[in-house]
Design brief:
The structure is a homotrimer of 302-residue chains. By secondary structure, chain A is an alpha/beta fold. In chain A, the strands form 2 sheets. The first copy, chain A, has a 5-stranded parallel sheet with strand order 7-6-5-8-9, covered by helices on one side. The model of chain A has no long low-confidence stretch (mean pLDDT 92).
Amino acid sequence: MIKHFLSLSSFATNDIQSLIDRAHFFSLHSKQPDKINHLLKNKIFANLFYEPSTRTRCSFEIAAKRLGAEVVNFVPENSSVKKGETLYDTLKTFESLGVDGIVLRHADDRVFDGLHARFNLPLLNAGAGKFEHPSQGLLDLLTLKQEFGGLNGLKIAVCGDIKHSRVAGSLMVAAEKFGMEIYLCGPESLLPTTTQAFIKKAHFDDILPSVDAVMMLRIQLERHESLELDGEAYHKQFGLSEKRVNTMKKEAIILHPGPFNRGVEIADEVVEHKQSRIFKQMSNGVFSRMAVLEWAVSGEHK
Amino acid sequence: MIKHFLSLSSFATNDIQSLIDRAHFFSLHSKQPDKINHLLKNKIFANLFYEPSTRTRCSFEIAAKRLGAEVVNFVPENSSVKKGETLYDTLKTFESLGVDGIVLRHADDRVFDGLHARFNLPLLNAGAGKFEHPSQGLLDLLTLKQEFGGLNGLKIAVCGDIKHSRVAGSLMVAAEKFGMEIYLCGPESLLPTTTQAFIKKAHFDDILPSVDAVMMLRIQLERHESLELDGEAYHKQFGLSEKRVNTMKKEAIILHPGPFNRGVEIADEVVEHKQSRIFKQMSNGVFSRMAVLEWAVSGEHK
Amino acid sequence: MIKHFLSLSSFATNDIQSLIDRAHFFSLHSKQPDKINHLLKNKIFANLFYEPSTRTRCSFEIAAKRLGAEVVNFVPENSSVKKGETLYDTLKTFESLGVDGIVLRHADDRVFDGLHARFNLPLLNAGAGKFEHPSQGLLDLLTLKQEFGGLNGLKIAVCGDIKHSRVAGSLMVAAEKFGMEIYLCGPESLLPTTTQAFIKKAHFDDILPSVDAVMMLRIQLERHESLELDGEAYHKQFGLSEKRVNTMKKEAIILHPGPFNRGVEIADEVVEHKQSRIFKQMSNGVFSRMAVLEWAVSGEHK
């Protein structure tokens, strides 16, 4: 069976748990490359990014290379996409070229719908529109688990442009599976309208003192048709300032998927605050993607 | 002697035969990477693509990596080409950097004329203007040979923008060497004016029932100075519809070098028709380029 | 201690000498890849080029790969830089992703000031604004040493846009350490205003007969706000023509960091003149960067 990695929602909780455990294993062996650099030998992954990306693209590339695999980067701007080729045909091309998996980022929320069933190699979601970003979900879970030992019952505030955030989307999927409580904060117009029982809206300043973690999100100006952002006003109302951090529990942690706009959703001095795990998240992103790549190619081809 | 791979016309027929055989060998070993992943160890190829490409660029890159070589991708947009560097000097630079071969695509039909004699490393033609695309020629021959066991006497229709197609150019060179008959179809203005004895013009619907293969070509709008294409009208007159496929012999096959414009030169449902070998051609492209890369570096440096 | 490679000025003379010797060693082993292809095994370098580059980017990439390392190329245009990420945060991201060193080119003269102290991995300067390009300085020294056996007392003319040239900057730093005399030639407006004792201004035609090497520099039009260059007039006054080469000593050599504009600062026929070492410099660039990369990762992480 081909193993696609499209959404955390399609995984059983203990399968996600296995991926987190494997990612944690890789984090422990990051200084012993000889123990892991053969695991994906002879594999070649294609990195297809239809939207700009630093962290995720390079993270998947480094993850693959740490395990001994090769990566082919596809840049739509320099490709046959310019000659009118459809996404399906581009993917089919890479399947025909014999790559062992395709890592795809795309602006379309529904890009994978019905698509994966037509392919005989693993497709890996590296961010689809506003909906899901499952490898980001994994790295968030790994970071929380390393911090707190477990996930059940954790209270997490998410603040910012939640409606346009696939990061928040994947976190909410994971929260349900692992019994976490999510509190949504931010401008009313940027919060989703329908929510489930374990997801509550809250006032940012009211909820901060009681959460175990706060995840700050960037206002994704590139996903808004017309929005002018007054960064200073936004920071005053919803930015994570040092003053706000001081209201949090001492063992609570600060998360952000990056990239961040310093001085807008997060104060300059908070990015590397002792309670911040923002750069640890990035490191965990490589370990999580190593687990995902290894898992994906362990399936049998049809 | 340095072995350049510039045009099929400079090869003896049995040398092309050897390359096809070697490519076929690689196709048989595609699931046993350990048998071939050392063949080009310690080699580094430079991929210089002055025109957009998905298939060919990635195909050469994957071919190199499957044989254990490394690839350096050169993107003219981010390079010293912006500072006015000539092509000759860019190539000379890569020679000086010590790469083991240069894979070059360029819009200029005559880009290799007189150039190769000035270099002390293999130059490989990955598509030159409207003239030749010899690795595409090889993969077409491999696909035909795998299908029919031999090449002599095969009848092939080529339909579309033949005048602007380096794919057709390389096929016609190969056809002469291997005793194939070529029938050119498509809008009169897109057919070449002078032809040889084994190349005949034909009406598309008249010739389809008697050919062994039909190769459909995209209208290369980027090579026409001013051409507006009425896709629907074109499809009616020259597109490969399912109805037209039904007039073909049951053992005849459908080829297309890609990228294709579904609904223009080829109907949506024909792309993955059981007589289509379009995606097999792409797979064969990797195997053919493996043979070409291995051959090229087997020469002695001056 | 983390070993950053930022400027030749921070190195002791005998440490530069060691790097040159090591680079020379690599030049001797360029045909025996098996002796060196394991030296940087399991290392991954990030190539971050915020300005166009062919030679330097590919040179670092090839250097890394020849030693068995992997390279991740970062193209600002396709990245989170588009989402407003700062350089510091991009670098911090790559540190978090676990790369073993960052090779950075940037338009800002002072990009490394105060930056390196904040990072726990080697930063390597691949050209910073108009100030320094230390790996270019190394390859120039290697080329001179291979030619003349030693560096002390060599007389070198530098001609062209010295004010905007980081290449000239690094050469002048090196000249002081190794006791070379530098003569600056070119349009008065493109020469630096303050100089040191071992750096003198000179008339190009007067000084050429007595130098051991002449380094020609391109007019960096991209660094001038408004300059129209009359190439022909410039060539007449400051271009290295064959006639001017004939006034030089027979054992004197011609250098140019590339890219060059043939017919402007250097005559077409001089580029590959028997006294030219221009393409040898490029080869030496790979060997020099191999030495630099190996040196950089030999430090201890904090």
